[in-house]
Design a protein that fits this description.
By secondary structure, the protein is an alpha+beta fold. 30% of the residues lie in helices and 29% in strands. The chain has one domain: minor pseudopilin epsh domain (minor pseudopilin epsh fold, 3-Layer(bab) Sandwich), CATH 3.55.40. It is elongated and about 90 Å long.
Length: 188
């Protein structure tokens, strides 16, 4: 009778093995969720970097095709303007102003980045440093120039990153002397 009473007694709590198995399942599920979030953030940065690169390529194409704006071809071409005063957006521009190259004559299209994404830019030539404004323009002859330059050899890097995060993508524009400009997207 004593044995029968022991069998009928209900177990209370979980065994050590059951607790370990449950913790393992929870850890695997958490790892899967975190990995999916990192991949999603990385993909969204890829998309934002590709959009900026596409805007730069569009400005280059408009300039080379000698596309008219307001009835005439902009004398200095088309470009993309980004400033520290508003780092969350960039503007497709025309450039017809005399004097200092790559100055906005007209704004054609503005793109605002999502709030959680930031945009920085760096002059990468001889002295890499963050700069206040780097507008890139393309002439009808296909060459690129940046604000304040006459078209010499230069490299500029725009970095698209998540606010407070370590994920980033870079858009690099290189203008080697005597060659067509190169626009690339990669991890910095």
């Amino acid at each position: 009778m004593n044995q029968t009473n022991n069998i009928l007694v209900k177990r209370r709590g979980f065994s050590f093995l059951e607790v370990i198995i449950a913790l393992g399942i929870v850890a695997i599920a958490a790892a899967a969720i975190l990995t999916a979030g990192v991949k999603r953030n990385s993909r969204s940065l890829d998309v934002e970097a590709e959009k900026l690169a596409a805007m730069l390529r569009r400005a280059q194409s408009l300039a080379i095709a000698k596309t008219t704006y307001d009835g005439q071809v902009p004398t200095k071409g088309y470009g993309v303007q980004v400033t520290t005063g508003n780092p969350a957006s960039y503007i497709l521009i025309t450039d017809s102003r005399p004097g200092n190259p790559c100055m906005r004559s007209a704004s054609l299209e503005t793109y605002a980045l999502p709030r959680e994404v930031q945009l920085q830019f760096f002059e990468v030539a001889a002295n890499p440093s963050a700069v206040g404004m780097v507008d890139i323009c393309f002439r009808p002859d296909g060459t690129a120039y940046r604000q304040g330059s006459a078209g010499e050899n230069f490299t500029v890097q725009y970095v698209v990153s998540r606010m407070g995060g370590s994920l980033a993508k870079a858009i690099v524009i290189r203008q080697p002397l005597g060659q067509d400009p190169i626009i690339e997207v990669h991890a910095p």
